[in-house]
From TrEMBL:
InterPro entries: TPR-like_helical_dom_sf (IPR011990), TPR_rpt (IPR019734). TPR repeats lie at residues 287-320. Keywords: Membrane, TPR repeat, Transmembrane, Transmembrane helix. This is Tetratricopeptide repeat protein. The keyword Membrane applies. The keyword Transmembrane applies. SMART domains: TPR. The chain crosses the membrane at residues 12-31, 43-60, 66-86, 114-132.
């Protein structure tokens, strides 16, 4: 199953599960009422109306999110009808006869009716709110992933994510969460890449590597893998080929192969003659390769190895790259529940590149302070250091100096 199909299936499953509390509340309410108007046949009429709402969603071409929101109450209503029908058939009587009737006072009867209606209302709200929240969360996840794909140069993957956002929540939502990305812009870039692939001369290894980069940007992994195999066979000393192999395996979620390829590229960089490269270029290459190996190790669950690779990347990184690696390292440490270390690296990223990471680092620190074990240790120490740094850099402090 593709990633898109898996995401869509999970949304449908969550919507169906959201209807379970409503089904329970309706069954309890119907069984507990002896009056004929609460019988399961009347409830089936409500289910028919909900089904009509689903059909109208499809006919009117509304976003998929509306269908998912209506699906929860519909599933709950029809599940209740099915349960009541089966139970009525098993005892040979109406569901209203399933519970012994006990004489109640007028006050207790009113109180019971209010409690049942309240439970139905709460369950109905849950059946609507849960799919809505899941949809909103999925849109945010896809938007962040689309931005990442754009930075990687994978315009076809970014286009697919934009298309999925449009189908799920409508074009207006996509324009809101991704104001700097448009379908027309992506189509233009994809056409340019396709034209470039046809115009690349592959007689030299540099042209072959360039074609592989373009194929990866178009998500043509099979063609890229065939060409990479030829390059590695003819030029086994090319660290660029192993780096591209690491990226290709990363894009395919083949994490062990990705990590192995990046580490092999590191070894080749150490062995090769770097007379044509400046010291700055060399350390930038080392930092990039160690970062790739760290990310692959992180995704396959080898946290100790990932942390070691991130530390090597920080050691090798030039000043312009340190902030990015600090922030990525902080995200990894947050994921591995190392809150204090994560906070420290997030703070370092914000200090080195405040324009890029100040807001993101503050959001990460907020998550660390509210959702992680030991979060009570974070606020004063880190906030105090941050305040001291801001005070030191303020115009008034510089004037006093």
């Amino acid at each position: 199953m593709t990633a898109a199909g898996s995401d869509e299936l999970s949304l449908y499953l969550w919507s169906l599960l959201a209807g379970l509390p409503l089904a329970y509340a309706l069954v309890v309410a119907v069984v507990g009422r002896p009056e004929s108007q609460y019988r399961w046949k009347r409830l089936s009429y409500v289910g028919c109306g909900a089904l009509l709402g689903l059909v109208l969603n499809v006919l009117l071409g509304l976003p998929q999110s509306w269908f998912l929101i209506v699906l929860g109450p519909t599933a709950g209503c029809w599940l209740a009808v099915a349960i009541l029908w089966v139970r009525s058939r098993s005892v040979g009587s109406n569901p209203s006869d399933l519970r012994p009737l006990v004489a109640k006072s007028k006050a207790s009867s009113i109180q019971g009716a209010f409690s049942e209606r309240l439970s139905i209302l709460i369950a109905l709200v849950l059946a609507v709110v849960l799919p809505w929240q899941m949809t909103a969360q999925r849109v945010r996840t896809w938007a962040d992933l689309a931005i990442t794909r754009m930075h990687e140069g994978r315009f076809v993957a970014a286009y697919d994510l934009l298309d999925r956002i449009d189908q799920l929540s409508g074009p207006k939502t996509a324009a809101t969460v991704l104001p700097d990305m448009s379908r027309k812009q992506l189509e233009t870039q994809i056409r340019q890449m396709i034209q470039s692939v046809g115009g690349v001369e592959i007689t030299e290894v540099e042209g072959q590597l360039q074609k592989v980069r373009l194929l990866l940007g178009l998500d043509e992994f099979e063609l890229a893998e065939e060409l990479l195999a030829k390059i590695l066979r003819d030029h086994p000393e090319s660290f660029e080929a192993f780096e591209l192999a690491g990226l290709m395996y990363q894009f395919q979620d083949r994490w062990s192969l990705s990590e192995t390829s990046f580490l092999r590229a590191v070894e080749l960089v150490r062995q090769r003659d770097v007379r044509g490269e400046s010291g700055h270029q060399r350390v930038a290459i080392d930092a990039r390769l160690w970062s790739g190996a760290a990310y692959a190790a992180r995704k396959r669950g080898a946290y100790d190895r990932a942390e070691n690779c991130y530390l090597k990347a920080l050691e090798a990184a030039p000043g312009s790259d340190k902030a990015r690696i600090h922030y990525v390292f902080a995200q990894f440490l947050e994921e591995s529940q190392q809150a204090l270390k994560a906070a420290e690296h997030a703070r370092q990223a914000a200090l080195l590149e405040p324009a890029l990471y100040q807001v993101s680092a503050q959001e990460l620190l907020l998550r660390l302070r509210t959702a992680h074990l030991g979060c009570f240790l974070l606020p004063r120490r880190l906030a105090g250091e941050q305040a001291a740094t801001e005070k030191k850099m303020s115009p008034a402090a510089m004037k006093d100096d």
